[in-house]
Design brief:
mainly alpha; single chain; about 10% strand; two-stranded antiparallel ribbon; 4 helices
Length: about 170
């Protein structure tokens, strides 16, 4: 795989994971919801607050995107600095790329599961849906999950192309 293609994919992954992390980190919404305690009295407005750190799946998604973003930045610099590396170095980069893919997919899966419960609720557990109340918060989380998933696929393409180019790059020359 060419150094230019590798670098472009790493920068794309960096921008996507950085964007997802920023979107999660600044995401919060407060909405006042009218609640009626007794039929004879007027409803009372209660503040419904949604913040990313209220849900551990979103904390994990943020941490995974920050780690993936940092790795993408560092690996881009390393790949650019060491253009003709040996096979051990190339295999190490591939292992880290695949590790990042696993971490991002697990974080996206956790956040997506929590997000679906937020959108639909769970009648068996009597959990009400909340995305009808804090819709902006849920929309921004959904966008960050999509950005993170696209970054995961960029890392998959990076690892796949690197594995496929190993025999060509490091084949014994006769």
């Amino acid at each position: 795989m060419g150094i230019i293609c590798d670098s472009i994919l790493r920068v794309v992954a960096l921008l996507l994971t950085l964007g997802a992390a920023i979107l999660i980190g600044v995401n919060r919404q407060t909405k006042f919801v009218p609640v009626q305690f007794t039929p004879g009295f007027p409803p009372v407005d209660i503040a419904a607050k949604a913040k990313w750190y209220y849900l551990s799946a979103l904390v994990y998604l943020l941490a995974a995107n920050i780690a993936a973003s940092a790795y993408a930045a560092i690996s881009t610099l390393i790949v650019l600095a060491t253009r003709s590396a040996n096979i051990g170095f190339a295999q190490t980069i591939i292992i880290f790329d695949v590790t990042i893919v696993g971490m991002l997919f697990s974080a996206n899966g956790a956040a997506l599961a929590v997000g679906i419960i937020g959108y639909k609720g769970n009648s068996h557990l009597q959990w009400n849906k909340v995305c009808n109340v804090v819709d902006g918060f849920c929309d921004r989380i959904a966008i960050s999950i999509v950005l993170s998933l696209v970054a995961s696929f960029a890392f998959i393409v990076l690892a796949s192309l690197a594995v496929l180019s190993l025999p060509k790059r490091f084949a014994p020359r006769t």
